[in-house]
Amino acid sequence: MGKVLSDAALAQLDEDGYTAPVQVLTPEEVARYRAHLEGFEAKHPEHTKKLKSKSQVLCPWVVELAETPRLMDAFGDFVGPDVLLWNMAWRVKKADGSTFAGWHQDFAYGGEMKPRLIIGALALSECGREQGCLKVIPGSHKQKPLPHQDFDDPTSILARGQQITVDFDKSVAVDLALKAGEIAFFNCNVIHGSAPNLGPDRRLMCLVEMIPPSAYRTDGIKDTAMLLRGTDTFHNFEDEPRPDAEFSPEAQANWKHIIDKRAKLIFEGSTLAVSEAYGGQRAAY
What we know:
This protein is α+β, with helices and mostly antiparallel strands. The protein has one domain (7-278): q2cbj1_9rhob like domain (Jelly Rolls, Sandwich), CATH 2.60.120. The protein is built from five helices and 15 strands. The chain has helices at 7-16, 27-43, 60-66, 69-79, 249-266; strands spanning 22-23, 83-93, 101-104, 113-114, 118-123, 134-136, 148-149, 163-164, 174-176, 182-187, 192-194, 203-211, 216-217, 224-229, 238-239. The strands form four sheets. Strands 1-10-5-12-2-14-15 form a seven-stranded mixed sheet. A four-stranded antiparallel sheet has the order 3-11-6-9, with no helix packed on it. A two-stranded antiparallel ribbon has the order 4-13. The radius of gyration is 17 Å and the shape is globular. The termini are far apart.
């Protein structure tokens, strides 16, 4: 039995590629971090898209959220005692009834990591079917990647608007419906997507990506990550500096250095220009 995830949950993650939701934030914590997020949006409206990738480098409160003990313990159940934070990626959907994420597999672009990356979908608002929750195809993480195509679609929440271009059985899709403060985990290789938000409130979700220091990219590129717990004796990742203050000049400079490297990985082979979420000029949702 793990600290947060049961043996059954860990077995399901291995077999089906996802887990049922577990509570990791209290209502007070949800309110606090939602206030931080909305405060950033109010102060820096022209820069909110930068929270879509590596937001931990920009805001101390994002690091504080990542270090919430129960959240870290949940990751520790499969990562181990030493934990690197690879990414805090905010996925905010307006209640506009149009924005979506097409069916895709994350390892079809941006390279692959060993062991395979497990992503936590953390909700700071109601993220149910009405709000366009994540959907997954159980067991699809065991398959080879399916062919994808990029689309310059302004209603897509994805970096490249990527979608799987061949047919597969969507009737078995499972909703990862979340309440505020809950997290569900899924293998980055599992086929997943999400429908538009038809609810009365925005869908506030952060994709949390933590890895063991022993992890490495299969292409040999040295990526970046932030040590949160324990020690790193492998040094497979360049150390990410913690932000000195929210969106300070130093934090912005560090983010730009890191995001330029990440943009090259994410957009390699794409016909699309780099989006503003990755330091470019193309509009991003």
